[in-house]
Specification:
By secondary structure, the protein is mainly β. The protein has 1 helix and 3 strands, in the order E-E-E-H.
């Protein structure tokens, strides 16, 4: 596993080095908050993301699912940085 692999994030918190990391997969559609991955879902289905939370310091990380990462290359909703 590489350091950028979301699964490696469950090992230790990158901020406080704690091992008490919690994980949840959730939709990125907004609902009561912002749409975090606009344009990367499918018709009537939002993109999903993995969320990791450190119970010690509260550090929070979001990772787009594989399908959303593949779609980002072909959408006009996102702009690649140069």
């Amino acid at each position: 596993m590489t350091r950028t692999d979301p699964e490696s994030r469950k090992q230790r918190c990158p901020v406080c080095d704690a091992r008490e990391i919690y994980h949840r997969r959730t939709g990125a559609n907004g609902g009561y908050g912002p749409r975090l991955l606009p344009g990367l879902g499918r018709f009537l289905k939002s993109a999903e993301m993995d969320v990791y939370l450190c119970a010690e310091c509260g550090h929070l990380q979001f990772f787009a699912d594989e399908q959303a990462r593949q779609r980002v290359r072909d959408t006009y909703s996102w702009r690649r940085l140069k």
